[in-house]
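Consortium newsletter contribution from the modelling node. Members have asked for a concrete example of what our holo predictions look like. Here is one, prepared for the 2-phosphoglycolic acid complex that several groups have been discussing at recent meetings.
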Amino acid sequence: MRQKIVAGNWKMNGSKALVQQLTSRIGSEMASLENGVGLVIIPPALYVPGVVESSSAGFGVGVQNIACWESGAYTGEISAAMAIDIGCAYTLVGHSERRQLFAETDEQIAAKVEQAVNAGLTVILCVGETLEQRDAGTAERVVSAQVRAGLANVSDDQWPNVVVAYEPVWAIGTGKTATAEDAQAMHVAIRRELKSIGAPADNVSILYGGSVKADNAPALFAQPDIDGGLIGGASLKADEFMSICRAVPGGY
Ligand code: PGA
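And here is the predicted structure:
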């Protein structure tokens, strides 16, 4: 059985006041969720301690990025061990904004994944094609290659700490989403790739991300290979985020 997960990636948004407001709402409404979905909050690193303080409510906390080194003279970086030390259980790696704006390569991403799982974090590896790649018919090839390269350093016993998030770049923050059928088809392709690299693919959660909102979440989450969502903009609004969490089908 795969864990269903809804993760909120706040990106570079938020404040002490917003941490207080969102975590108290989410914390108090979580108890009424009956679908067994796991919630993860991924605020900017500086706000992690404030979110961790509220995490007794039952949600996990993550960072948006970690260093590809263990420790040392890397000014401005945060290590996987530090994320664990401060109370995180998760990290995003390879978000498309990091790939595009910070020129992260597949090799760096693989090193970050390795640091994360070695430290005991669960890594959410983000993959996704650009619009040009989709139009050129290479989306599946690009995404499969990102999965293979990003997870190259994961050893057999570390697969329980791996989650994949499929986020078509053209759907992030644009209001455009993949159709539920297109997203499902890519999730099947990702699962096939996971199998081919030796992962227990049927046990790896694959999340969909890119303009997920309360109104499109039910159709996406009804797909058999979509195990939840990675939510950007809508995770900053408590009502919208909780509606998305409620859209995960229960009874599994
Ligand atoms: P969005 O972002 O929901 O605002 O499109 C998703 C993401 O980048 O993780």
